């Protein structure tokens, strides 16, 4: 499937920003089942300072604000060919040892609720079935709801809240999968929802490492493994490691962000 | 033999006659008047105060600037003794850099089963952001301070490898300056290898590691946490001696793909940053977001090849006390040779058998926190009260993985000058090593730290330690 | 050189100059209280005003009282504008810019600090006061001497000098601002002894008594004093002299950096006011208004220097 993506993130500030940086992880890479035909990032109100590959092989751009700006916009546009590989991403490449994906982070530190969820996972079945069951349990206990306004909730806090969005689902799944001994990671990317061109937001799901298969994706919110409608952009140990944009700025200007995202089949 | 000293004294050995390296010095000393020397001692102190060779003590507002006591009896090492030590240090430092490169790449040493993966996996000093990063020349630890202790004529042990930001080199240099100033006649009588070239060597060595982005003569800067840092004097001293800028985080920002400093003429890119700020505080964008000491985005520029950071982030994994216990294996794995310098036998309390042994023998052992430094959080069994031992036992049992234990070594002594004349005190030695792509440079001698309290084995300046000038004799 | 370093040099020398000037003012106040005790209180009030510390003082101590004012100005830990605090601030700035200083300059500042820390550890006894004030002036002179004798004449030196002259002119202007009315020709009471003492105080507070007498054959005349302190280019504490020097130093920076900055236009505009050398014109404009304008313009110049040479971001 050939997907056409247009993703604009627009920030406005209520006072000029003297200095600021945004770390941008918004460049999908060609890999098994995913071919990036075209991709460009344009910044207005700032400039790309450096580009590099991080430890998870994400292509990262460091963007600086032009001094005294009250607006900055990051636009990604491109075309990606995606094949349905039933969520299988393949072996671990690069230098990151698998044990790193068993490390808990601030957002994925387990507590009693996540532990209880992990304990529910069936024992006498294949790893893959076990993970699918876990994914279903997460959605069952944390139904999808956009009511939650707080972002950056820990997995344990999400369990307590009892509902969440894709990011929250991914965090709970990752935390529980690690408790079960699976290396697991967070994925940020795009999903083309079949019924619309304008998508609400970029998407997030999780991957777990299964012996023999390698990394396998689980879109907990939709109860499936990613297919040809998913563009995989960045991975990390949690949201913070794979966040599309994470920034820092001087001064105390208030920030307002709006996102427009179109994903359509070409 | 009754009254025979238990400890090896570097001046007198186990006897009463001066050992060979000290012969000329002792000859001179015999003709000196103790009262005159003691007044010289005060002179030295006044000089240190005037120059401002002070350190700050945290949490002590009344004594924000203190002097490290200086003892004017030098510690003397023969050229032959030093040659062997230097060779051992060089081997070790090569292994450290090879280890760091390996740990942040394929981790061959783990694959080969020579180091358990959990030693890295459970280690906070391992910095995932460094995975796959190859700094210029593959040098991770440019400046190393290898702490040594001596127990006998030919016995040196490595106590720890300071691969992050070893401090103290300014004391080594100022101690020598002071000795030259006070006792010029001694230096014409006894030929001592010079240490004064250190700042030039440091500059050369850092310049040799400039990134590809550098064109022309590398611009070097020293990053300090600021004037309230305990080692500020040293930061200013080194910047001054190297003709480098002394910068703080707020002087720097990312400009046109480089880390640049704000000068009176605008932003100027830095090629090599000798940072004296810990990893955690280095970059609020990538590490601790509350840090005001660092430079946002410096890790991004670093990973893009726009700046060299010395020492590299993440080198702490190599000087961790738990990793230390594997150093003989690490040296052998990367150099193919047996380690020249010995490690102190180390019990890893994370291992049940070792823990049992340690708990059974607390009164005879030194127990240290794996990630601790500066002599804090440690138990010196033979010097501790019953109560202290029991308190420590509880801490150890609660988190055994946080501790290692070592036998108490019979640390050598060197005399210091007291009102009553010469008196032996325990010492250690921190030689300073510079690593560049084509050479390893070890300053002859280093900083001798001395426990000023009789019988004490704790040499840390924060806990009553002093320093001495260290002489390595010419051949 | 780092912008922060340039700023540190500027402030280091401002603080040193300020401490020295405060010592002079204490000296002048002391003199009055010894010779004309009835005028003492108003004199201390005026000194506190010219140091800008009246409010801080009265909040703690109430009405001006000689020994209290002296202690407040010298060393009171509650007074961030005391001489001791100024010397500490100068030394702190010297530590920040340590790599820009010669060892001699650093040691002179450090020793100044160590000596004063000891001398000002407790309230100074009356009998020791003249000596302490002398030590302050002397130690400050040592730093200046080390600067002149050991520092390369480059941008580092220029920023140090700009700080010195900036503070000095500010100080002279503030003293004039407190006393302008007794220098006005219109309200002069011929031969009034009280005025003579006031004139004497102005000269004393600026350490210019002897210079004035030498250059004016001992004739004390208020208009001549005003001209002397504002326009006389021979006097190192006059506004004309200080601003001539600031203009020179900014010019050297322009030469070294090959860049002319906005602050130079501001400095030139200030200098031009002194160039006419016309005291009558200043009196016609209004002495008070002239000084008020000067203080406003010099503050603007200070801010512009800070921006042009990037002391801060």
What does this structure look like?
The complex is a heterotrimer of chains A (266), B (475) and C (313). Helix content of chain A is 18%, strand content 42%. Chain A has five helices and 14 strands. In chain A, a hairpin with a 5-residue loop joins strand 4 (46-53) and strand 5 (59-65). In chain A, helix 2 packs across helix 4 and helix 3 (155-161) crosses helix 4 (166-179). In chain A, 44% of the residues are buried. With 475 residues, chain B is an alpha+beta fold. Chain B contains 15 helices and 21 strands. Chain B has helices at residues 23-30, 34-51, 79-103, 108-111, 117-121, 169-182, 184-189, 198-207, 232-242, 279-282, 298-303, 321-324, 327-335, 352-360, 386-398, and strands at residues 70-77, 143-152, 155-162, 220-223, 245-247, 252-255, 258-263, 266-269, 272-275, 308-310, 342-343, 347-348, 365-369, 379-380, 403-407, 413-418, 421-430, 432-436, 439-442, 447-451, 465-472. In chain B, the strands form five sheets. A five-stranded mixed β-sheet of chain B has the order 1-21-20-17-16. Chain B has a five-stranded mixed β-sheet with strand order 11-3-2-18-19. A four-stranded parallel β-sheet of chain B has the order 5-4-9-10. In chain B, helix 9 links the parallel strand 4 (220-223) and strand 5 (245-247). Chain B starts with 22 loop residues before the first helix and ends with a strand. With 313 residues, chain C is an all-alpha fold. The interface between A and B is medium-sized, with 25 and 31 residues.
Helix and strand layout, with pairings?
The complex is a heterotrimer of chains A (266), B (475) and C (313).
Chain A lengths: L1 E16 L2 E8 L6 E11 L1 E8 L5 E7 L3 E14 L5 E3 L21 H8 L7 H15 L13 H7 L4 H14 L4 E8 L6 E2 L3 E8 L3 E5 L11 E7 L2 H4 L2 E5 L5 E11 L1
Antiparallel strand pairs in A: 1-6, 1-14, 2-5, 2-13, 3-6, 4-5, 7-11, 8-10, 8-12, 9-14, 10-11
Chain B lengths: L22 H8 L3 H18 L18 E8 L1 H25 L4 H4 L5 H5 L21 E10 L2 E8 L6 H14 L1 H6 L8 H10 L12 E4 L8 H11 L2 E3 L4 E4 L2 E6 L2 E4 L2 E4 L3 H4 L15 H6 L4 E3 L10 H4 L2 H9 L6 E2 L3 E2 L3 H9 L4 E5 L9 E2 L5 H13 L4 E5 L5 E6 L2 E10 L1 E5 L2 E4 L4 E5 L13 E8 L3
Chain C lengths: L2 H33 L1 H14 L3 H8 L4 H9 L8 H14 L6 H17 L9 H22 L4 H29 L9 H13 L3 H7 L6 H10 L7 H19 L4 H14 L3 H7 L1 H22 L5
């Amino acid at each position: 499937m050939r997907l056409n993506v247009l993703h604009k993130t627009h920030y406005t500030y209520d006072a000029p920003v003297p200095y600021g940086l945004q770390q941008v992880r918004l460049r999908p890479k060609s890999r098994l089942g995913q071919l990036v035909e075209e991709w460009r990032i344009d910044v207005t109100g700032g400039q790309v300072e450096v580009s590099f590959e991080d430890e998870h092989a994400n292509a990262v751009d460091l963007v600086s604000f032009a001094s005294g700006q009250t607006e900055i916009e990051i636009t990604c546009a491109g075309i990606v060919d995606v094949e349905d590989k039933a969520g299988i991403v393949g072996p671990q490449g690069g230098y990151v040892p698998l044990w790193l994906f068993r490390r808990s982070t601030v957002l994925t530190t387990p507590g009693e609720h996540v532990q209880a969820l992990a304990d529910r996972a069936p024992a006498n079945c294949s790893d893959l079935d076990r993970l699918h069951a876990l994914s279903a349990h997460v959605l069952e206990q944390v139904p999808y709801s956009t009511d939650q306004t707080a972002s950056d909730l820990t997995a344990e806090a999400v369990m307590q809240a009892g509902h969440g969005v894709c990011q929250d689902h991914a965090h709970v799944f990752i935390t529980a999968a690690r408790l079960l001994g699976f290396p697991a990671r967070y994925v940020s990317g795009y999903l083309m929802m079949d019924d619309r061109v304008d998508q609400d937001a970029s998407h997030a799901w999780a991957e777990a490492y299964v012996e023999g298969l390698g990394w396998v994706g689980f879109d907990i919110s939709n109860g499936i493994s990613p297919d040809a409608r998913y563009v995989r952009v960045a991975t990390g140990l949690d949201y913070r490691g794979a966040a599309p944009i994470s920034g820092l700025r001087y001064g105390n200007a208030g920030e307002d962000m709006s996102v427009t995202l179109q994903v359509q089949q070409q | 033999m009754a009254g025979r000293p238990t400890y090896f004294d570097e001046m007198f050995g186990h006897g009463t006659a001066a050992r060979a390296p000290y012969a000329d010095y002792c000859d001179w000393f015999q003709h000196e008047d103790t009262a005159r020397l003691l007044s010289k001692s005060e002179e030295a102190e006044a000089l240190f105060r005037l120059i401002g060779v002070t350190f700050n003590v945290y949490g002590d507002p009344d004594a924000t600037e203190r002097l490290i006591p200086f003892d004017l009896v030098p510690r003397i090492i023969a050229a032959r003794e030093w040659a062997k030590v230097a060779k051992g240090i060089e081997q070790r430092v090569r292994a450290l850099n090879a280890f760091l490169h390996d740990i942040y790449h394929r981790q061959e040493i783990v694959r080969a089963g020579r180091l358990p993966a959990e030693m890295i996996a459970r280690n906070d000093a391992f910095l995932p952001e460094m995975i796959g990063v190859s700094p210029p020349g593959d040098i991770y630890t440019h400046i190393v301070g290898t702490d040594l202790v001596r127990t006998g004529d030919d016995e040196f042990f490595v106590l720890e490898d300071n691969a992050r930001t070893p401090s103290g080199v300014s004391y080594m240099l100022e101690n020598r300056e002071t000795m030259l100033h006070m006792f010029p006649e001694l230096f014409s009588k006894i030929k001592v290898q010079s240490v004064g070239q250190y700042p030039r060597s440091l500059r050369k060595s850092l310049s040799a590691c400039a990134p590809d982005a550098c064109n022309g003569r590398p611009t070097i800067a020293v990053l300090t946490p600021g004037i309230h840092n305990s080692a500020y004097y040293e930061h200013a001293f080194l910047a001054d001696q190297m003709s480098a800028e002394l910068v703080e985080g707020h002087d720097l920002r990312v400009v046109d793909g480089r880390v640049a400093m704000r000068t009176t003429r605008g932003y100027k890119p830095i090629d090599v940053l000798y940072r004296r700020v810990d990893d955690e505080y280095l970059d609020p964008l990538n590490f601790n977001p509350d840090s005001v000491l660092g430079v946002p985005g410096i890790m991004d520029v670093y990973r893009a090849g726009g700046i060299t950071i010395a020492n590299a982030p993440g080198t702490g994994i190599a000087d961790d006390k738990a990793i230390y216990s594997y150093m003989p294996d690490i040296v052998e794995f990367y150099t193919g040779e047996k380690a020249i310098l010995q490690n102190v036998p180390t019990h890893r309390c994370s291992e049940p058998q070792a823990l049992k042994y340690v708990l059974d023998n607390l009164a005879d052992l030194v127990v240290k926190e794996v990630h601790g430094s500066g002599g804090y959080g440690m138990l010196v069994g033979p010097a501790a009260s019953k109560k202290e031992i029991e308190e420590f036992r509880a801490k150890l049992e609660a988190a055994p993985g946080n501790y290692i234990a070592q036998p108490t070594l019979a640390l050598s002594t060197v005399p210091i000058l007291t009102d009553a004349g010469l008196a032996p005190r325990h010492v250690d030695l921190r030689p300073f090593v510079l690593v560049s792509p084509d050479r390893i440079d070890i300053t002859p001698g280093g900083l001798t730290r001395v426990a000023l309290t009789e019988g004490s084995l704790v040499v840390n300046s924060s806990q009553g330690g002093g320093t001495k000038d260290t002489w390595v004799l010419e051949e | 050189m780092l912008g922060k370093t340039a700023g540190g040099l500027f402030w280091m020398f401002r603080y040193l100059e300020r401490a020295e000037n405060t010592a002079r003012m204490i000296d002048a106040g002391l003199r009055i209280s010894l010779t004309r005790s009835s005028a003492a209180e108003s004199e201390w009030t005026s000194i506190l005003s010219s140091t800008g510390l009246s409010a801080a003082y009265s909040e703690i101590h109430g009405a001006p009282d000689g020994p209290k004012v002296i202690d407040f100005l010298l060393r009171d830990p509650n007074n961030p504008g005391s001489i001791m605090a100024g010397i500490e601030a100068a030394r702190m700035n010297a530590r920040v810019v340590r790599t820009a200083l010669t060892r001699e300059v650093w040691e002179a500042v450090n020793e100044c600090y160590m000596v004063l820390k000891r001398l000002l550890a407790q309230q100074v006894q009356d009998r020791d006061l003249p000596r302490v004030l002398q030590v302050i002036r002397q130690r400050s002179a040592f730093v200046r001497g080390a600067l002149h004798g050991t520092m390369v004449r480059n941008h580092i030196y220029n920023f140090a000098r700009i700080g010195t002259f900036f503070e000095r002119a500010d100080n002279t202007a503030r003293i004039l601002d407190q006393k302008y009315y007794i220098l006005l020709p219109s309200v002069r009471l011929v031969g009034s002894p009280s005025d003579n003492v006031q004139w004497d105080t102005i000269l004393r507070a600026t350490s210019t008594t002897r210079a004035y007498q030498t250059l004016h054959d001992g004739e004390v005349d208020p208009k001549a004093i005003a001209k002397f302190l504002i326009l006389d280019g021979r006097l190192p504490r006059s506004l004309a002299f200080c601003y001539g020097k600031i203009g020179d130093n900014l010019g050297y920076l322009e030469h070294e950096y090959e860049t002319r900055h906005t602050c130079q236009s501001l400095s030139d505009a200030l200098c031009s006011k002194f160039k006419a050398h016309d005291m009558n014109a200043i009196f016609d404009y209004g002495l008070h208004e002239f000084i008020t304008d000067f203080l406003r313009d010099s503050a603007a110049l200070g801010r512009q220097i800070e921006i042009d040479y990037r002391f801060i971001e």
